[in-house]
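Journal club prep — side note

Before the paper discussion, L.F. wants everyone to see what a predicted structure for a comparable chain looks like in token form. Sequence:
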Amino acid sequence: MSRLRERYGAVPPEEADVIVALGGDGLMLETLHRFMDRKVAIYGMNRGTVGFLLNEYREAGLTRRLQIAERVELKPLYMRARTISGEIFEAISINEVSLLRETRQAAKLRLSVDGTARLGELICDGVIVATPAGSTAYNLSAHGPIIPLGAQLLALTPISAFRPRRWRGALLPSTARVTIEVLEPRKRPVSAVADYTEIRDVKRVSIRESPTATLTLLFDPEHNLEDRILNEQFIP
């Protein structure tokens, strides 16, 4: 980082036209959350392990790379969770919202979409609602579908479903409002996780695409995020 500052200079992130993030995907998510209200473009260079949301790290030619970078806009998820005690929590998630069992007992969940109950009882370890950008992360590990960026879809994916055994999830329009009710919440406690924000002992969770937040990422033309997501479908 010091070499980049010496070479290109730097200003406080609150004043920057573009923020250059150095790290892995976790750091990139933190940066996007931190500056979400500024609506500033983020250009990441990978100094981590996977770097799916970042470009290749190179010190030379950074100014030119920023000038020709392609803009990708992401729509995060908005989560509203009510706990057993009645507290209300809100959070924004770029990748996914996950509901996870807290104890040895499986969770019992009721799933509704746009006010209509679609699955009266799902016994499972949990469930995921994933954005296209997040569809290649936890969602893919849970055998959920990979979603192209422009598809305007969300993935609803069970985690280790016990009953109904054959239910493998659903693809929903990006306008859908998903409501997940926890059945027997005291006996079978469940947590809700929006990226790195965790709410324990939830009773009811509503998830939809954020109506206000839009994130802008910058990518080198040869590292286009949409192509990366598409290529993930052909990895054996």
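L.F.'s comment for the group: The first strand starts at residue 18 and ends at 23. Keep this in mind when we get to the figures.
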